[in-house]
Design brief:
Elements (H helix, E strand, L loop, with lengths): L7 H7 L1 H9 L16 H10 L5 H22 L6 H11 L2 H7 L5 H20 L5 H15 L3 H19 L1
């Protein structure tokens, strides 16, 4: 994860825009650059990491979302598959080669997945404990996912469908 960045998306906008904002000491719309109009929550975190001196901190931040996603998945499936099957499934998930390749580049897909898994975990837990504020946490996490990438909207749609299904079962 500490090798120099070589991925096109990372070099073109995930790290380039925060670097430009840091260089200019302001956040602004870059004319004729489509990606400056996209949600940039994760890029702003990368910008903080870049202000520490190099892109290595940004890459380590991105890498840290792989174990976080594994932990979220483990917490989500443990009630359904307790013990060894949950551990094996989580280990298999973390060993997917594509996820490993996502972990070494500064992008938003792995953080998006980790935040969506955390949101689904809160949502799932809120069905059993409705008065704990987990709905609010799930909503905040889904909103954060949409701030990472517009594809977070699909997770919100899935959550709404799941909540509606749960409401129909109770009714």
């Amino acid at each position: 994860a500490l090798a120099p960045e070589i991925a096109f998306d990372s070099l073109r906008y995930h790290l380039a825009l925060p670097h430009l904002f840091h260089f200019e000491h302001r956040i602004f719309h870059v004319e004729r650059f489509l990606f400056s109009a996209f949600p940039s929550s994760m890029e702003m975190l990368y910008g903080f990491c870049l202000s520490l001196g190099s892109e290595g901190a940004a890459k380590l931040l991105n890498w840290s979302f792989l174990p976080l996603a594994g932990a979220m998945l483990f917490g989500l499936i443990t009630p359904l598959l307790p013990g060894t099957p949950a551990v094996l499934l989580t280990a298999s998930f973390c060993a997917i080669p594509f996820l490993g390749s996502l972990a070494v580049f500064s992008n938003v897909d792995l953080p998006l997945m980790a935040v969506e898994l955390a949101a689904f975990s809160c949502l799932w837990s809120s069905f059993n404990r409705p008065a704990t504020g987990l709905w609010l946490s799930a909503g905040w996490l889904f909103g954060t996912a949409m701030g990472f990438k517009y594809l977070g909207l699909f997770a919100v749609a899935g959550a709404v469908i799941r909540a509606a299904y749960r409401a129909v079962l109770r009714w």
